[in-house]
Design brief:
By secondary structure, this protein is an alpha+beta fold. It has helices at about 1-20, 35-65, 85-110, 235-245, 255-260, 280-285, 295-300, 365-370, 385-390, and strands spanning about 120, 125, 135-140, 145-150, 155, 160-165, 170-175, 180, 190, 200, 210-215, 225-230, 250, 270-275, 325-330, 330. It has a seven-stranded mixed beta sheet with strand order 10-7-3-4-5-14-13. It has a five-stranded mixed beta sheet with strand order 6-12-11-8-9.
Length: about 400
């Protein structure tokens, strides 16, 4: 029986190791300095917590074995109730661990702030004074990634490249749905939200091809919302830029609006030129003609509002149902958010297929309750004030 138990235990360990062999441990073996520091924070925090967890587990098992009922040689003291030595150990050790863990977390939280510009290439190298950071503008679309390189005037879909040992400044936003930009080998995930811009500063230290993905569920094509990150030497990056310019097409405002429509499993695309101000228009949610930019609306709000004429701005500020009128093979485009009522958002028209609500009539009891009472601004026995008559009916 004992041999069988040992065999099952060894088999379980073998299966566990085989299962772990299929795991991608890129988070614990990153290639960028920010991701390396985040990995170190995970390791240090885990070790600090294990300093308490492991002894507690060991002592729990030891006490259960040491003071089992069959062990008559163990001391038995039914009157024991307090030990100052044990109290000091029980409280001081966890307190010290919590203080150390809090200090490490506090320092790392500020040092690894994604908005904080980099101050080093890695643990042994500072950033050379003549180094110019690479700016990449990231747009999360449904369900693909658009990357714009303002310094080079190019753009790509589902592919990004950067030279190694060059700081990268990411400006991240989304077109309609909140997503999360994440390259595990490079740095931690950063949310991409419509109408907002988030930032990320990172650097890739090793040449290679790495996986990028969205880690925030955003609809049907979420599982295929992935891209490739290429870490290249400067010469290889220059060749990549030249290839994008040679093979790409123009990314105009019209081309972007077509690209913005929801689609899954989108292949890599190159754009050799980008219309000026496109990223700012996406960020301000005014890429479509006739829409008011958020920056304009905020300017109006700061000035105290647009007055009575501002009702004309309503149509310019409607961002719902952007794809409701699009059709693909006679069906509504995926991702359309047209209300189930069949009418646009906040439409004054009644819902399609629903009868207009009938006006309620007063019951005899309600009529009796109204008799003998007056409303503010009305004469006794006279009609109610106009504002009180709105929405009321007569039997």
């Amino acid at each position: 029986m004992q041999s069988l138990i040992k065999f099952v235990g060894r088999l379980f360990l073998l299966v566990s190791f085989l299962a772990l062999a299929g795991c991608n441990l890129v988070v614990m073996s990153p290639s960028g300095d920010i991701a390396v520091q985040q990995r170190d924070l995970i390791v240090v925090s885990t070790v600090l917590m294990l300093l308490i967890i492991v002894p507690v587990i060991f002592l729990t098992l030891f006490f259960a074995w040491r003071y089992r009922s069959s062990n008559t040689s163990a001391p038995y003291d039914p009157e024991w109730h307090h030990s100052t030595r044990l109290e000091v150990i029980i409280w001081s050790a966890p307190l010290a661990i919590i203080i150390a863990l809090g200090a490490v977390t506090w320092i790392s939280t500020h040092k690894l702030d994604p908005y904080r510009p980099l101050d080093r290439l890695d643990a042994e190298r500072a950033i050379p004074a003549e180094t110019k950071p690479l700016t990449v503008e990231v747009v999360a679309l449904d369900w693909k990634w658009l990357f714009l390189y303002p310094d080079y005037g190019i753009a790509t879909v589902n592919e990004i490249a950067a030279p190694v040992d060059v700081p990268i400044n990411f400006k991240i936003t989304a077109s309609s749905m909140m997503n999360s930009f994440y390259v595990p080998a490079l740095a931690g995930m950063i949310y991409a939200m419509p109408g907002m811009q988030t930032r990320l500063h990172a650097v890739m230290n090793e040449q290679g091809e790495y996986e990028g993905l969205s880690t925030n569920y955003s609809g049907d094509g979420f599982s295929h919302m992935r891209f490739k990150f290429h870490g290249l030497q400067q010469a290889g990056f220059d060749e990549w830029v030249a290839r994008v310019k040679a093979q790409g097409t123009a990314l105009s405002r019209d081309a972007y609006l077509k690209l913005e429509k929801p689609s899954a499993k989108e292949p890599v695309r190159y754009f050799s030129s980008v219309e000026n101000g496109l990223f700012d228009a996406i960020l301000n949610m005014c890429a479509r003609p006739g829409q008011m930019c958020m920056s304009e609306m905020m300017h109006i709000d700061m000035a105290g509002g647009g007055g009575a004429e501002s009702h004309d701005n309503r149509a310019k500020l409607e961002y719902d149902n952007r794809h409701a009128d699009d059709a693909t093979h006679g069906e509504a485009a995926p991702g359309a958010t047209f209300p189930a009522t069949g009418n646009p958002a906040r439409s004054p028209e009644p819902a399609k297929g629903v009868d207009a609500p009938h006006q309620p009539t007063e019951t005899p009891i309600q009529q009796n309750m109204h008799e003998g009472h007056t409303t503010p601004g009305s004469a006794p026995g006279g009609p109610a004030a106009p504002q009180m008559n709105q929405g009321t009916t007569q039997p």
